[in-house]
Structure formats: structure tokens, C-alpha cells
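Journal club prep — side note

Before the paper discussion, L.F. wants everyone to see what a predicted structure for a comparable chain looks like in C-alpha cell form. Sequence:
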Amino acid sequence: MSAESLFVLSVPWEVIPLGDVCRRGGGNVQTGPFGSQLHASDYVPDGIPSIMPMNIGDNRINEKGIARITPEDAQRLSKYLVKIGDIVYSRRGDVERRSLIRNHENGWLCGTGCLRVSFGEKNVVHPPYAAYYLGHPLVREWIVRHAQGATMPNLNTSILSALPFVLPPFEEQERIAGILADLDDKIELNRQINQTLEQIAHTIFKSWFVDFEPVKAKIKAKAAGRDPEHAAMCAISGKLETELDQLPPEQYQKLAATAALFPDELVESELGLIPVGWNCRKLEDFVVVVDYVANGSFASLKENVQLQNSPGYALFVRTTDFNSGFSGDFRFVSKAAYEFLKKSSLDGSEIIISNVGDVGTVFRAPKWLGYPMTLGSNAVALKSKIANSFLFHYFKGHEGQFAIQSIVTGSAQLKFNKTNLRGLDIVVPSDSLLNHFSGISNSIQNQQDNLEGQTRSLAALRDTLLPELLSGIINFS
């Protein structure tokens, strides 16, 4: 059975429905288990991971918060287990996102709310090629356009099986995938570097503002009759005192100036022992809290704010965008809708926290995207003149997550409101130390933003190359 190609082809390659491709290779397009087969009470802390829609990132599985089932349930539901080379979709919501199953996920469950595309064992389809094909914007747009549902897109096996699929010879699929994989390797390297950079910043935050290591080093040195400033410099740099004198003068002076920002005493407070001169403050005392504001009734919101897939005036920032790593499946609003939601506008400096569902997930506003932005539902944004970097790492850490959990309500759906968030007590250091940490964190963030820009350019190049490779315009053989 043939189908009409979504791409211009100048070579006589087959174009057939995706379902026929799967069957030809001995595979299929199949839903995950229904709720009646797997209940909430069946999930366990340790066991076989179950892939849910929230775990589907940009062609990769995101393990954060992944559910798990017992080996016995995995055996009972063995027809739904994924294999290397399968591709998993969400059945609702962001239905165009997909993840290729790699060695690490082999044998996991295609969970409730997901669809599995399996190509079988007959070498009809090279799975990495299929993943690149299915991830192209034209293909993603086709899926969204055909997905059913008045309020939320719904994907089913019939729709996905009907998707027009360009099927070059197997060797050609391998060649195309190999070319695009070189770009993906660089994208993945950028992602790993960004994770390392964030970990560096968070390690500094924890040392300074949670464990009070420079302060404690000063206290210990003072009690032993040693130089407190040298001790703090060692705690900050990770160097021995004998190594400090070997530092270049400029580096030594910067390190000494940083050490001088820390006090040498701990005092009692309502939140326990804290460095002298630091304060326990309500979040609302130094932070502006922004949320998704509807200027009127639900009917007015529905009338004035329509989300669109194609680029519009402003980006409608959703928590799902962050979960997918801003892979490109954005939603936009018109200028009029942006004005309607102006109380929810973002300038790119905010810290965003999910307050419904996946409560407590923390992100930075994506200023590198280059669009005006407005905050979507199910999240709040925090903005401070000097404490944005501090707040990001605070709420990413154990202490901040514990504070959020203390204000969470609900059983069927977890949530918290911004009033309770504003009332949280936080230990805040001096303005001079906050400014210093912000300078370090912002420098790291600039590096991350540059890498994000590179990644987006590489992804755009990848999406441009695929149709040209399929059309025969470019031939690297």
C-alpha cells in the first residue's frame, strides 16, 4: 500500500504507511497496557522501569521520576516490554514527541498512556533512521494535525499506522542515519557539558549556603590558633594551605576577597544554626512571584488565548517544554494573547517551579530562545533583583525540595499555591555574598546558553539535512 510523501523525492524510494512498514519487518504499532491492567497500587520503589509520557524527551528517555513495576508484573505484561530500536510515543498531549529505545532501556515497560512502534527483526527499517525521520518537523506536524481530541491531541494506533513513511534501501537508511548521528553526537556532548557546568555551580552553592564549609573552616581555624582566612580559602578552592602561596597573585587576591565575605561564627535562629549576619527571611520579602494569570473567566481565557504550533509573537512556556529539553515542539500565542496574559510575561531571568502534577521541578526561563515569553499553566515564576541564581540552586537542592513538599496539598493531584510559597522561610546570606555567587553562577549560565545556542543550530541543520538527503539534493556517498 503506497502513501503520499511528506517530502519532495527525486529518487524512486517507497513511501508506505508506517503500520505497513512495521508489519513487513515483523513488528507492529501497539498501545501500552490500559489502566485496568496496571493500577497505581502496582508501582513499587524498585523494579522494572515503566515509561510514561512524562519520561519521553527529545528522542531520549528521561528517567527522572520514572515509575517501576515488579518483575512479576513485567512478566505478566511481557507483550508491552520495549526492545532496542523500538520508538515510544505519548498517546495524549505532546503526541509528536518520541524516544528511541537504546541498550539502557531494553526490557523496560511501554507504560500506560504510551504507544510503541516496533520494526521487527527483518532489517526492513534501521531504527536510528526511523527516529530521525519521525522527529522531523514536517512529520511531527502531520502527527499533531491528525491527532484527535477537542481539548487535547490524542494519538492512537490507527493514526500512527497511517503516517506516510519514506523507506529507502536499508543501506541508504544507515548512511543517512550515520550523517545525522554526527550532529546528534555533538548535541549530546553539549548536553553533557551543560549538566557538568550546572553540577559545578550547585556544588559551590551547597558548600557555601547549605554546609557552610567556609564558615566552619574559619571557626575551626580560629579555635586552633590558625589563620581563619587561609582556612576559608582552602575550603573554597579545595587546595592545601601550602598550595595557596603558589597561586598567581591575581588568583590569590580573588580567592582572599571571596573568603572575606564569609563570617567566622554560627548563631541560633528559627531555622537552626546559621552564619552570623545572615537572616531568616520570608520568600515574599525579596522575590516577586508570577503565575499564569487569566484576566477574566475561563470562557474569556479560551476566547483570547489560542495556542499555535507555528511561530507566533510570543512563546507560551509550558512545563512540558522543560521536561523535553526545549526540543522544538513549542507553543506560541499572538501579540493580542500576549497582551491579555501580560501579568504572566517573562523576561528570561526568572526561576520557574512546577506547582501542579510534577510538583517541585525547577527550571530557568529560556532567555536564549529569542522570543517574548509568557508563563503557561501549572507553574509559578520567581524573580529577584539579586537572588535568582541563589533561588535556582536552593529549590533544586534537598532543602528547597523539602520546603516545597511542606506546602503541597492534594491526593489525586499534588499541588501548591503561590500564597504558601511566598510564606516559606529561607536562610539568606549577605547581599555582597549573594552578588558574588550570582556572578559565578551567571558566568556558568552564559556558557550554558552559548552551548544551547550551538545545540539549536545543530538541530536546525539536522532537520534541514534530512529532506535534502531524502530528495537526492545532497549525496555524500
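L.F.'s comment for the group: The chain has three domains: 14-168, 190-277+433-454, 281-428. Keep this in mind when we get to the figures.
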